[in-house]
Amino acid sequence: MTLMQKLLGASAVLALSAGTATAEPALIFDLGGKFDKSFNEAAFNGAQRWAEETGGTFREIELTSEAQREQALRRFAEAGANPVVMTGFAFGSVLDEVAPDYPDTKFAIIDMVVDQPNVRSVVFNEHEGSFLVGMMAGLKTESGTVGFIGGMDIPLIRKFACGYAQGVVAANPDATVIANMTGTTPAAWNDPVKGGELTKAQISQGADIVYAAAGGTGVGVLQAAADEGIFSIGVDSNQNYLHPGSVLTSMLKRVDVAVYEAMSQGTDLETGFNVMGLANYGVGVALDENNEAIVSYDMLAQVYAAADKIVSGEMMVHDYMSDDSCPALEF
Amino acid sequence: MDFLTFLQISDTAVRFAIPLLFACLAGLFSERAGIFDIGLEGKMLAAAFFSAAIAALTGNVWIGLLAGIGASMALSIIHGLASITFRGNQLISGVAINFLAAGLTVLIAQDWFRQGGRTPSLSDFGPNARFNSITLPYADQMQDAGPLGLVYAELISGHSILVYVGFLMVPLTWYILFRTRFGLRLRAVGENPAAVDTAGVSVVGLRYAAVAICGILCGMAGAYLATGLQAGFVKDMSSGRGFIALAALIFAKWRPWYALWACLLFGFLQAMALRPDAVERLVQIDIPGQLLDALPYILTVVILAGFVGKAIPPRAGGEPYVKER
Q: Which UniProt keywords apply (chain A) (predicted)?
């Protein structure tokens, strides 16, 4: 092989790899981390499914600090990744600034609405899913008191709490809901010790079911609930398997579907506002062999009936984020 | 607030206070010998990870505890090398240890367990894989025997062994520091290392000893977090407790008994923040939990500003000892 051929070959390889790089989607995980057994992990699973089905590859980065948000976004956009998918409300303001600088790149943001022509905003009706698990808690509780433990105190988490409280009251009008937030900083997503203590505090107030919407902190909540012999409810991913027989159910938020769809559409990503609710299976409750023994047929029948009513519009679940107030719960 | 609620909050306070107390006493030994240590947080985190990981791998929490102490000691030795042998800046070394621990724990956890930087739940590894709570003798019978019995059953009984060890560490620390020759020299080395050197005692040796004791105590703090309070390691699970312990150390004016009260107070404030309902019933106004969470820091600032007494750190603290001057 002459030198010329080598050079030509090398440049051909370069051209090829450059060609694939432009079509490669990217995924940015929020501070909770890729394997949080919850929200970010669901996103990863969606991307993984896309990669397995299409044989494609995707780029990814896990943020470790707030300061990296803009940096990561710009780097992926500069590198030609398309679409760039990101998980988490916290990207909202950063993406709003970055998106206009890269008009040819499509972005997809989950859990936040960003009004830019090249951005797809995917939001979930968490209040609907939380309503259903709230109903299950209301039907299951024996003490008449159920708990909610949120991560960082942000409107999104209050939306979970509010939907849950409405569900509890709908199924059991006399029930009391205790709601606590772990903290007001991002550290609140990774403090299982405090989550466990909050669970014990709620148990001493009479709670016999706790719903954790708290990322890594939720691991501590579920653990404490299993240790103390009460029921817990997982969130985002199916967490039933973590403590079989103690985790009553999990509120599924199909972040994986959202990521999968965004990546499947590739560069032709449909931008704009995208709502994933009960109607299009964006949220739901988890049933598997780990919790079938503790969920009764009667309970399921009522939950499915309520789900039908919500889908048909016969019943409305109040969304905390629509007016920053909750009819069923005081914060 | 009824008496039972008060006891429940106190019970939570004790569990919150113990990791602070271990870390605070660790800092006490180190700083009394003149080595500032803001790496308490990182050492706790490393100990939390290694105790949980080894407990998961061996199914024996005591081996886990030893591994946690070992990891914490290793970081202590690094801190010692940097700040005693090589006379580096103690604060920078401490910050480096915090970063090192935060990154290393997640990295190793991912390599060993493939669960995204956490360990599996220790409850899957049999009853000996974590510190279980101990019910003291007659606790159940004492439940109905008046208020004192209730205190015994609710507050004193039902903690894991490390809690009782933690409380024992306070008199032990006091005895070592204020009633032994070693303690006298250790304190002297933090005040005036040149005098100790002149007396023919090794400054470097004493400081290394102090830093090693600091490692042991931090190791217990971390092990309690991951194998006593929780059943496994989650990334960043120390959540700033090392820094609150430093605040408690200043609040306690570098004294062991004061450290106990400071940690209990800080633990109690944290526990109160978890029970807004009880607080509201007590004071009739709604106090935001954030205020209670912030109080340890506010109190520390108040103490530092000299409003309530005066906190004077060991005089030679933060300065490497240079013999040949």
A: Cell membrane, Lipoprotein, Membrane, Signal
Point out which residues pair with A62 in neighbouring strands.
A29
Establish if B125 touches chain A: CB-CB under 8 angstroms: no
CB contact under 8 A, A197 and B225: no
Q: Is B114 left (phi over 0), alpha (psi -120 to 50) or beta?
A: left
Instruction: Using an 8 Å CB-CB cutoff, list chain A residues near B117.
Output: 33, 35
Total domains present in chain A: 2
pLDDT at res. A39: 81
Confidence grade of residue B308 (pLDDT, cut at 50, 70, 90): low
Give the angle B297-B319-B47 at the CA atoms, nearest 5°: 55
Residue B320: phi and psi, rounded to 5, are -70, 145
Q: At what angle do helices B256-273 and A192-204 cross, to 10 degrees?
A: 70
Task: Give one word for B146, left, alpha or beta, with left for phi > 0 and alpha for psi -120 to 50.
Answer: left
pLDDT tens-place string over residues B219-260: 999 999 999 999 999 888 998 899 999 999 988 989 999 999
CB contact under 8 A, B232 and A219: yes
CB contact under 8 A, B116 and A34: yes
pLDDT given for residue B148 in this prediction: 83
pLDDT of residue A20: 44
Closest Cα of chain B to A251: distance in Å? 21
Mutant choice from A40, A48, A204, A242 vs B, greatest count of B C-beta within 10 A: A204
Contact A193 B232 (CB under 8 A): no
Question: Could you tell me the domains of chain B?
Answer: 3-130+142-304 (1.10.3470)
Minimum Cα–Cα distance from B229: chain A residue: A193
Q: What range defines the domain where residue A163 resides?
A: 126-253+296-323
What is d(CA B256, CA B267) in angstroms, rounded to the nearest whole number?
16
Partner-chain contact A191 B5, CB within 8 Å:
no
Range with the largest mean pLDDT of A40-44, B210-214, B266-270: B210-214
pLDDT at B181: 95
- Judged on CB neighbours under 10 Å (0-12, 13-18, 19+), A32 is buried
Q: ipTM of the assembly?
A: 0.86
Does residue B191 belong to the interface with chain A, where contact is any CB pair within 8 Å? no
Chain A residues within 8 A (CB-CB) of chain B? 33-37, 41, 178, 180-181, 183-184, 187, 190-194, 196-198, 200-201, 204-205, 216, 219-220, 223, 226-227, 242-243
- A285 in any annotated domain: no
Instruction: Give the global pTM.
Output: 0.85
A150 plus A203 within the same structural domain = yes
Structure confidence at residue B273 (pLDDT): 84
